[in-house]
């Protein structure tokens, strides 16, 4: 899974990315501090099954703290986009192309409204954050439109002459953006177009743009990380944004607060689990007055919002929006791997995944030689079409 972190320049994208991954990236208060995309590993937080089996797990990837398992997901932080990015302004085409393989986009918005449309700092009240949400959606829609228009005339002529199926042909054209035939069908249905009566060659510019917009929404779903919840201007803007965009998932966050907590935890100054509503200072003698004041301020943010929001953005994106589930491989009589690691793996699976899908996810040979699966928690055998659910522990039996 690849999640793209996008947004206007200078809104805290790289701070969000670093807070989520602790990757060493440049954070600066000027536009285009990020030029080349940054890759890193973030983590979604799920309940570990170690407590169910009364064991302590040893993850091969990620980590587990207090019964909370942190499962890795890949994050990609691209350079800040500006109006006209789809036309190449600000190297926009390059940055948009970096997002082609993303399964979902996290749009980081300066919800305090302290950054203008060009990514430059401005005074409170001088910029409406709602414009940023509209701006990015528009840039992405025009990006898709640009890809389609390059081939549209010859494309639709060939379809109509050869009687090629429209859905399959469009999906193939957009395959690099993870568009499927089902998405194309849904887009046509959403637009209310009858392809038997209205040939695609007759579509006007607006119809093409609306069509591309529907494809973009399905293939690159987006969640809003409403950043800078630590600022006084934030709350009113958040209320307005939620009223204006009721169809969007908007999660309040303070990337700077999360980054401060994770850095302090890394230095073992505090005890903090990402996503928690509090932390514990364990080396108070190591803190100077400035650091104490900073942690006091962060605690006030936690008291107000219950968390910094960064972990919640990742979890909301993967589980509430994409509807993924987490599943553990394990044996009915053995929860360890060949090296003695207990419950070493946890996989994120798309909604509707079956036992056979899970077998193939573990290894192609296991899928090819599938005989049956065992629900280890319930101690019952299940077939290849058994649909999995969150927190399942599954053993796969294969041909000898």
Please give a structural write-up:
With 400 residues, the protein is α/β, with parallel strands linked by helices. The protein folds into three domains: 224 residues, P-loop containing nucleotide triphosphate hydrolases (Rossmann fold, 3-Layer(aba) Sandwich); 78 residues, Helicase, Ruva Protein, domain 3 (Orthogonal Bundle); 72 residues, Ubiquitin-like (UB roll), CATH 3.10.20.30. It is built from 14 helices and 14 strands. Strands 1, 2, 3, 4, 5, 6 and 7 form a seven-stranded mixed β-sheet that branches. Strands 11-10-14-12-13 form a five-stranded mixed β-sheet. A two-stranded antiparallel ribbon has the order 8-9. Helix 6 crosses helix 7, helix 7 crosses helix 8 and helix 10 packs across helix 11. It is flat. The two termini are 32 Å apart.
Helix and strand run:
EHEHEEHEHHHHHEHEHEEHHEEHHEEE
Overall number of strands: 14
User: What is the 3D form?
Assistant: flat
Radius of gyration (Å):
24 Å
* CATH level-4 homologous superfamily of the largest domain: P-loop containing nucleotide triphosphate hydrolases
Q: What share of residues are in beta strands?
A: 15-25%
CATH topology of the largest domain: Rossmann fold
* Mean pLDDT figure: 89
CATH architecture of the largest domain: 3-Layer(aba) Sandwich
Low-confidence stretches: 25-34
Terminus-to-terminus distance: 32 Å
Pairing-aware structural class of the strands and helices?
Answer: alpha/beta
**Count of individual domains:** 3
In CATH, what is the class of the largest domain? Alpha Beta
- Specify the number of helices: 14
Work out the helicity level.
25-40%
Largest sheet: 7 strands, mixed
